[in-house]
Design goal:
Layout lengths: L1 H12 L2 H21 L4 H7 E2 L19 E2 L5 H14 L2 H21 L10 E5 L7 E8 L2 E8 L3 E3 L3 E5 L16 H13 L2 H7 E3 L22 E2 L5 H15 L4 H13 L6 E6 L7 E6 L4 E6 L1 H4 L2 E6 L7 H12 L6
Parallel strand pairs: 1-3, 8-10
Antiparallel strand pairs: 2-3, 3-4, 4-5, 5-6, 5-7, 7-13, 9-10, 10-11, 11-12, 12-13
């Protein structure tokens, strides 16, 4: 009853963002505490880092050795708690995509026979002390997956950089033939391109050849350059709806309450200034790349490698990646100084 009253009052007074962040911070803290509580001391030492440690921004999406605790090093109970933490941060759709991405490691092992193709290598790290009101974060990372959460108090949650990739983009042989872990991202982007009239498409197309990878790579800091492509202000209502649906596919791979707040920030910054740009061929099976850029965010999608059957897709917020914006404000308000850049 009390929760219902809070939700009603929040809607009337107009602070759903605070309520969403408060719920997220509490539930994520509970999930992280439950995970850490079943670790052995030596495992905890490898899993937990100071919140201001440089490791927090040491992210990548290629198969490599990572700092933290790997799934294959955990007991069944520890793995269950670890995956519950990941599940707490993602939507149902996002969680399904993450599981599909992890499952592709088995497909790659069957194709290549290399030891680093192993779903047990996905690594979990926690930064700081999990608390509903504290400053902390967590990361789940491995080949083609980098999920980063930063929480500052009970009111601020950052989910970027957020990277999901897929190799193969489409499974072409075996019992899982036809499955596409990130098919939605390709289909929505291409549908928008094909919905543009010839003049609009000529503006959106910035190169006949797609770049080999996302342009920002795994850079820890990015800046938004002048946007390429077609602005939403020049789209008709149907096209604009398709653009918004494409952005939502990235934002709402995270839990709904946090994603809703992120979408609100995009709307406040103006959809009119969001640009859609395409490079490469328009047909299925051709190498292609697209970018969606607004005043506060950048989406990059690339499908070029392995004969255009290898997807890299990232969503970033230059100011808020790793929670830099709210951390800066937090340290200024609470400690009288900004953290070193």
């Amino acid at each position: 009853m009390r929760a219902s009253i809070i939700v009603l009052v929040a809607g009337i007074l107009g602070f759903p963002g605070w309520l969403a962040a408060h719920s997220a911070s509490r539930e994520l803290a509970d999930a992280a505490i439950a995970f850490l509580s079943v670790l052995e001391p030596e495992q905890s030492r490898r899993t937990v880092f100071p919140v201001n440690d440089a490791e927090r921004e040491n992210w990548h999406f290629v198969p490599k050795e990572r700092n933290g605790l790997k799934l294959k090093e955990m007991t069944p109970l520890q793995r269950e708690r670890a995956m519950a933490l990941l599940r707490a941060g993602l939507s149902e759709r996002g969680h399904a995509q993450a599981q599909a991405i992890m499952g592709l490691e088995k497909i790659l092992f069957e194709i290549e026979g290399r030891d680093h193709r192993d779903a047990g290598l996905y690594t979990f790290s926690v930064f700081g002390t999990p608390s509903a009101n504290g400053v902390w974060g967590w990361r789940v990372e491995g080949h083609h997956l980098s999920v980063n959460f930063t929480l500052v108090g009970s009111q601020h949650v950052s989910t970027t950089p957020s990277f999901f990739g897929s190799n193969p983009a489409e499974i072409r042989t075996g019992p899982q033939k036809g499955q596409r872990a990130l098919g939605e991202l390709e289909d929505l982007g291409r549908s928008l391109l094909l919905a543009l009239d010839p003049v609009q498409r000529s503006v959106a197309l910035f190169s006949a050849e797609a770049p080999r990878d996302i342009i920002t790579g795994n850079q820890r800091r990015i800046t938004l350059e002048k946007p390429e492509g077609l602005p939403a202000a020049r789209m008709n209502p149907t096209q604009r709806g398709q653009l918004e649906q494409l952005v939502r596919a990235y934002v709402f791979r995270h839990r709904e309450d946090v994603a809703t707040e992120d979408l609100r920030k995009i709307s406040e910054a103006s959809w009119d200034q969001v640009h859609f740009a395409w490079a490469g061929g328009p047909a299925r099976g051709e190498a292609h790349y697209y970018r969606v850029q607004g005043p506060t965010f950048l989406i990059e999608y690339d499908n070029v490698q392995n004969s255009a059957n290898h997807v890299h897709a990232v969503w970033r917020d230059p100011e808020a990646d790793f929670g830099r914006d709210v951390l800066r404000e937090h340290y200024a308000n609470e400690h009288g100084a900004k953290p070193a850049k």
